[in-house]
Amino acid sequence: MIPPDIPPEFSSTRLLLRRYRPEDSAAYFQMLQANQEHLREFLPSLWQEVQNEADVATVLRQLAAEWDARNLFIFGVWEKESGSYVGELYLANPDWQVPCVELGYFLVKDKTGRGYATEAARAMIQFAFEQLKVNRIDLQCAADNLASQRVAERCGFTLEGRQRQRQRKKDGKLVDRLWYGLLHNEYAWPENH
Ligand SMILES: CC(C)(COP(=O)(O)OP(=O)(O)OC[C@H]1O[C@@H](n2cnc3c(N)ncnc32)[C@H](O)[C@@H]1OP(=O)(O)O)[C@@H](O)C(=O)NCCC(=O)NCCS
User: Fold this and answer.
1) What is the pLDDT of residues 156-183, one digit of tens each?
2) Which ranges constitute the DSSP H helices of the chain?
3) What is the DSSP letter of 157?
4) Which amino acid residue places its CA nearest to atom 35 of ligand 1?
5) Residue 78 region by backbone torsions, left for phi larger than 0, else alpha for psi between -120 and 50, else beta
6) How far apart (Å, rounded) are the C-alpha atoms in residues 180 and 103?
7) d(Cα 96, Cα 94) in Å, to the nearest integer?
8) CB of 107 closer than 6 angstroms to any ligand 1 atom
9) Coil, helix or strand for 161?
């Protein structure tokens, strides 16, 4: 069943996760410029073509339409204490028949190494199971992305598959792609954490 109402924000211990607003465009453009190298392999082409704040505003409008169509739920993440931008998490490619959805994430470079990705991913997983009422969450990452694999493993995902030479890096090299899954019946964090 497609969920009728989806809360636009929620929080974890240190972080606020909320839907982007049009006024986030300027800060988002700055973030893209400051993190070009760090996010080079990760950002979809949609963002790589952005030249200025107005382009960001256009993309944010497209993402809002995707949210309203229940196709893609993108959340910006901010530190509660300082209000600083930390990164982004999304739930994409829903299949409401199962139902299941795919989790993805990035942090800006200077906010890595603090456990924020794992904390935010856990909050998103709880959101996906409890608000979107999915039965499973997919997660994919390149086989050479060890930081992302550690996030998946800390969140309790099981490695389910390896697609050989499935991803072309920006330098032209082919790498395997790993697929992880987390089932609703494997998740019991609110009680256990
Ligand atoms: C993938 C990515 C989000 C991981 O970020 P990260 O900072 O390594 O992950 P976390 O926020 O969970 O932080 C974990 C690290 O913080 C350390 N840490 C420091 N203080 C901590 C705290 N208070 N609590 C928890 N962990 C803490 C942990 O020891 C851990 O280090 P380790 O992985 O070397 O063992 C980040 O590398 C990134 O944005 N990469 C580019 C985009 C990308 O690849 N996205 C995923 C595509 S599939």
Assistant:
1) 999 999 999 999 999 999 999 999 999 9
2) 25-34, 45-48, 53-68, 116-130, 146-154, 189-192
3) P
4) 150
5) beta
6) 10
7) 6
8) yes
9) strand
List, for residues 122-160, the tens digit of each pLDDT value.
Answer: 999 999 999 999 999 999 999 999 999 999 999 999 999
| CA of residue 98 to ligand 1 center, whole Å | 30
Domains of the chain listed by start with CATH number: 9-192 (3.40.630.30)
Residue nearest to atom 21 of ligand 1 (CA): 114
Cβ-based neighbour number of residue 145 at 10 Å: 18
Count of alpha carbons within 13 angstroms of residue 166, beta-carbon side: 13
Per-residue CA distances from 83 to 47, 50, 78, 121, 123 (Å):
23, 25, 6, 19, 18
Supply the residue whose CA is at minimum distance from atom 19 of ligand 1: 114
Distance 155 CA to ligand 1 centre (A): 12
